[in-house]
Amino acid sequence: MTDPRTTPAPEGVRTDVAHNARVWNHWLGGTDNHPVDRAVGDRVTAMYPSIGEVARADRAFLGRAVRYLAGEAGIRQFLDIGTGLPSAGNTHEVARRTAPGCRVVYVDNDPAVLALARTLLAGSQPGTTEYVDADARDPERILRASASTLDLERPVAVMLLGILNFVLDTDEARRIVRTLMDALPSGSHVVLTHPTLELGGEGNEAAMRFWNENATPPITARTRAEFAAFLTGLDPVDPGIVSCAHWRGEPGAVRVAQFGAVARKP
Ligand SMILES: C[S@@+](CC[C@H](N)C(=O)[O-])C[C@H]1O[C@@H](n2cnc3c(N)ncnc32)[C@H](O)[C@@H]1O
Question: What's the chain look like in SS3?
Answer without folding.
Answer: CCCCCCCCCCCCCCCCCEEHHHHHHHHCCCCCCCHHHHHHHHHHHHHCCCHHHHHHHHHHHHHHHHHHHHCCCCCCEEEEECCCCCCCCCHHHHHHHHCCCCEEEEEECCHHHHHCHHHHHCCCCCCCEEEEECCCCCHHHHHHHHCCCCCCCCCCEEEEECCHHHCCCHHHHHHHHHHHHHCCCCCCEEEEEEECCCCCCCCHHHHHHHHHHHEECCCCCCCHHHHHHCCCCCEECCCCCEEHHHCCCCCCCCCCCEEEEEEECC
